[in-house]
Write a structure and sequence with these properties.
Helix content is 36%, strand content 15%. The protein has 366 residues and is of the alpha/beta class. It folds into 2 domains: 226 residues, L-asparaginase, N-terminal domain (Rossmann fold); 125 residues, Rossmann fold. The chain has a 6-stranded mixed sheet, with helices on both faces.
Length: 366
């Protein structure tokens, strides 16, 4: 690590990253402005605002990947991980990432998994309405009815505090990234989360000693080539249970068995109830034997899964892992990180179970 990293402190600039989304859209119909136009405009607006965050100052981290967040892929998630990792290696610790809202909770949860064990501070935000007023065509002006400006300033203030971890800031609130989910498609209060977060939020260290930080960075750099390569092949699938015969979900699962080991999310009813059949039980066992990792989640936005009902508890005898109270974005993020980070199905499964045990949400096989 460069020697300058040891002198970094809370007086250093916050690194601002623009990744596209509604925040930077403009015109009729709305379309994202190019970085060449939007970033100078945003810089100018920040410098002109009396209420803008002026201490610490803001720096800009160059980002070549600007696209609609609904188009993001695992390789794109790794791009942002690598971008942040490189800056963190240079001693930067505080970041604000502006992204689109469609996959904002997925990206935040992924970064939380990827940077677990570090002392980095990342705040992810976006907006439901564009920053700029499309009714004004002679100049770029802030739309007073937009949530973009307040979300950005709230995020900058949160990053200025420098608390370690990955958080999402939106609508006047902030939460650990692993707890956040989008609950409304167009309301300004589009996200919710909670503060009772376990792993990876509880793995962040407020002031990481330089030796430990260097060891953490060395480990990540060694793994980075493999992570980048695996992102091209890593797949996460979601199977949504509906009031059908069990053969429907079984056929969907069977279609995945011919693929390389992947992550599979079973979206069950209520507390994780899944229609039972002997054939489906056998297929779940086969999926495990072939290296797939199957996680049960709830279709309900809150509460997660449990083994209280026989209608759901049976699956845990066939190597399905309970998602506990994790949100769907958090389950996706953890599955993806395990596929990227570890080279064998056994290690991925072991790591998941260790993490969930830390979170106090494991369901033991009876």
């Amino acid at each position: 690590m460069p020697s300058s990293a040891t002198s970094k402190n809370l007086s250093d600039p916050i690194q601002l990253i623009y990744a596209g989304g509604t925040f930077g859209s403009y015109g009729r119909p709305l379309a994202p402005l190019s970085a060449e136009i939007f970033l100078p405009t945003l810089k100018k607006l920040l410098s002109e605002q009396d209420n803008a965050v002026t201490s610490p100052t803001i720096s800009w981290l160059d980002n070549t990947l600007i696209k609609d967040s609904s188009q993001l892929t695992p390789s794109d998630f790794v791009h942002f991980y690598q971008l942040l990792l490189n800056a963190y290696t240079q001693g930067e610790k505080r970041f604000v990432l502006i992204s689109g809202t469609d996959t904002l909770s997925y990206l935040g949860a992924f970064l939380a998994e990827a940077f677990a064990g570090s002392d980095i501070c990342i705040v992810v935000t976006g907006s439901m309405r564009p920053l700029l007023n499309s009714e004004v065509i002679q100049s770029y002006e802030i739309d007073d009815h937009s949530d973009a400006w307040s979300n950005l300033n709230d995020s900058l203030k949160l990053a200025a505090a420098g608390d370690s971890g990955v958080k999402i800031s939106f609508g006047g609130e902030s939460w650990p990234a692993q707890t956040v989910q989008k609950i409304h498609s167009h309301d300004l209060m589009a996200f919710t989360g909670h503060s009772r977060a376990a792993y990876p939020a509880n793995s962040y260290i407020r002031n990481l000693p330089e030796t430990r930080r260097q060891h953490w960075l060395d480990d990540q750099q060694v793994l980075l080539p493999n992570i980048t390569a695996r992102a091209e092949q890593s797949k996460i699938h979601a199977l949504y249970c509906l009031p059908n015969d069990a053969s429907v979900i079984n056929n969907q699962l069977q279609n995945l068995l011919s693929q390389p080991p992947c992550g599979i999310i079973l979206l069950g009813f209520g507390a994780g109830n899944i229609p039972y059949s002997d054939t489906l039980a056998d297929t779940l066992s086969l999926a495990h034997e072939q290296g797939h990792i199957v996680i049960c989640a709830s279709q309900c936005p809150f509460g997660g899964v449990s083994d209280s009902y026989a209608a759901g508890s049976w699956q845990y005898d066939y190597h399905v892992i309970a998602g506990g109270r994790l949100t769907i974005p958090a389950i996706y993020a953890r599955l993806l990180w395990l596929l990227l980070r570890y080279d064998s199905p056994a290690r991925r499964r072991q790591r998941w179970l260790n993490n969930v045990s830390q979170a106090g949400t494991s369901i033991k096989k009876r």
